[in-house]
Amino acid sequence: MLKFTLNYDGWGKVKYIQGNVLDKELISNTIAKFDYIFHLAALLGTSETLENIYSAVESNIIGTLNILEAIKTHKKRGLIITIGGIDWLNPYAITKLAVEKFSLMYAIEYDLDIKVVRGLNTYGPRQKYEPVRKAVPFFTINALKNKPLEIYGNGRQTLDLVYVGDLVQVMLKTMEFKGKIYHIIEAGTGVKTTVNKLAKMIIQLSHSRSRLTYSPMRRGEPDHSTTIGDINTLKEIEYIPSTSLKNGLQKTIEWYQKHYPL
């Protein structure tokens, strides 16, 4: 298992406070000390959260409400990150949809500078391989080991894959924008890629001998799905993700080759 530690460039400027978004007092006291709040905390997983529904609701909804209340109390500015596939019927997607609605409600009803960025299918260096299974790290690690790449369903589901560096730029541009934005900002490329194409690209770029295998769709995910970002939602911040899928995957593969024990 790949273990991530606070040991790469930039962490010297970070103050790490271990806590829980359900600790309302800690959240309030911490937010009071900062000018801008980025909220990315969540209990992850589509099929995984089906076994932890109450925990998903507590962490994702109640935890977010604690953050929104602290932003309101201390009159701070904030940015809330959500996900693509928001209409899927699993606890993760359902709670994230509620997070979007609550965040926009707080922005409008309490006249707060709170913006919502919906990160589409984000990938890149340092993305965890487990326990929650994500396509790019799972395919990459197995391709580098020349193991089969297991695909759920028929692989014709489409994704809008956005490189993590581009998502960061969307977040920063959104933070810098001083006006109010009362709609979801979709951090995507507007380009569709099937799961089959993604897997084949990773095999090719990693010079792998892996083959594709297929399994029934996992619980909580539809058999046929399309996730695509609306780049018109990015017009206020004047930035559109520009890293091509090929270049982004190449950077990602190189990172795993260097940091993952193969």
Describe the structure.
This protein is α/β, with parallel strands linked by helices and 262 residues long. 37% of the residues lie in helices and 15% in strands. It contains seven helices and ten strands. The strands form four sheets. The protein has a four-stranded parallel sheet with strand order 1-2-3-8, sandwiched between helices. Strands 4-7 form a two-stranded parallel sheet. The protein has a two-stranded parallel sheet with strand order 5-10. 34% of the residues are buried.
List descriptors.
NAD-dependent epimerase/dehydratase domain-containing protein, four-stranded parallel β-sheet, UDP-galactose 4-epimerase, domain 1, alpha/beta, Rossmann fold, 262 residues, globular, NAD(P)-bd_dom, 2 domains, Epimerase_deHydtase, two-stranded parallel ribbon, 7 helices
Query: What is the general shape?
Result: globular
> What is the second-level CATH architecture of the largest domain?
Alpha-Beta Complex
Low-confidence stretches: none
Number of domains: 2
CATH class of the largest domain: Alpha Beta
Domain NAD(P)-binding: 13-76
Protein name: NAD-dependent epimerase/dehydratase domain-containing protein
Domain NAD-dependent epimerase/dehydratase: 89-184
Family: Belongs to the NAD(P)-dependent epimerase/dehydratase family.
Task: Tell me briefly what this model is.
This protein is of the alpha/beta class and 262 residues long. It is 37% helix and 15% strand. The protein is built from seven helices and ten strands.
